[in-house]
Design a protein that fits this description.
Shape: elongated
Number of helices: 9
Oligomer: single chain
Helix content: over 70%
Order of helices and strands: HHHHHHHHH
Largest sheet: none
Strand content: under 5%
Radius of gyration: 16 Å
Distance between the termini: 57 Å
Number of strands: 0
């Protein structure tokens, strides 16, 4: 019954189910229900236009605590939707994790682009790191482009 509820709530068309999914994600007795709740929560966080970036980040952090590799990738992808220096710092913390490095880089690039010039002092060091040792050519190229746009080259 809880599995069905978690699945149904995860397919909810609005963010109204987020509190229930957050609760299920933490309290469900079985892994499958927690996984369904976590995946639904991440999906709804992405469509929650009314939520603050700080609130959405807190939900993603909670989801990351018990997530496996596939879910960690989806959570980092969702974090890329945010425009928050704390979200940037959080995803940058996953750059050294080979299992999710590419997703962390993409999220960091997306957030850095949204933050723009006003956060260059925070984003430039991470962008330089991605430019030098990014997992993909496209990430390295995008990091270089962002650094140029920020006026932070070399």
């Amino acid at each position: 019954m809880r599995q069905a509820a978690a699945g149904d709530a995860g397919d909810w068309p609005t963010a109204a189910a987020i509190p229930d999914l957050a609760s299920l994600m933490k309290s469900a007795a079985d892994d499958h229900t927690r996984t369904l709740a976590r995946r639904g929560l991440v999906r709804l966080v992405r469509v929650d236009a009314a939520g603050t970036d700080a609130g959405r980040l807190a939900l993603l952090r909670a989801a990351m605590e018990q997530a496996g590799a596939a879910d960690r990738k989806a959570i980092l992808a969702a974090a890329g939707d945010l425009k928050d220096p704390a979200a940037f710092a959080w995803v940058a913390g996953y750059l050294a994790d080979a299992e999710v490095q590419a997703e962390a880089e993409l999220a960091a690039l997306q957030i850095a682009e949204k933050l723009g010039q006003g956060s260059a002092s925070v984003t430039a060091p991470v962008l330089k790191q991605i430019r030098e040792s990014g997992a993909t050519n496209s990430a390295r190229r995008k990091a270089g482009d962002l650094l140029t746009a920020l006026g932070s080259l070399p």
